[in-house]
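Lab notebook, bench 4. The sequencing result for the construct came back, and we need a structural model before the next group meeting so we can plan mutations. Quick request posted to the team channel:

Model the 3D structure of this chain.
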Amino acid sequence: MARAATQADQPGGSALLSIGQVLARLNPEFPDLSPSKLRFLEERQLISPARTESGYRKFSPADVERIRFILSVQRDHYLPLKVIRGYLDDLDAGREPTLPGGAALPPPSMLSSERRFTREELVREAGASSSLLADAISASLIAPAEGYGEEALAVLRALAELQRSGIEPRHLRGFRAAAERELGLIENALIPIARRKDASSRARAAELAREIAGQLEVVRSSLIRSALSRLTS
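Done. Here's the predicted structure in token form:
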């Protein structure tokens, strides 16, 4: 149930943010975030913004960090919202939960905004070369951009390590093709929901897409582990 925003309608209540202000803060990190997505998170009881007397939602800084946490975990771990909600419920109860797979994360209030890197900064942080980044972009493993985020950094670091084992980006072109095939599977699964044009259905489609992607990741990881066990046996 939403809290009452006792200061939100007064001049001194600037600490509380409107939906538009929340989007302005978070859209650089999460371009797909929309008012309907925020309402969807509230419907699923992951967030509980305050309300003004006239019924408008107002968000505290802690609410914004909680939203950032939820979206980060969705993006980076492909977890369904019901799992994230359970994790947050445990945090709210003072417990120290772990995510599936044993990963532990800092609480929402400790999360900071994603760092952004120029091309030169990305290469330096990853311990890679400019030519490796160029090869990764050519192989469609990293998208060309003016600025790069943490995900691009993680990929380039992995590519730098693979290069030391003789594996070059050109050897991984099939990864992009496999990702496109998986995307096709997800798109086909979403057709029944995608036909509906209401905001709730769009939010549900985005959530289901992440759930399917997470399950595909489980299957892919299992196949790789199985192949590795045969290789080393």
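Residues 119-167 form one domain.
Will bring this to the meeting.
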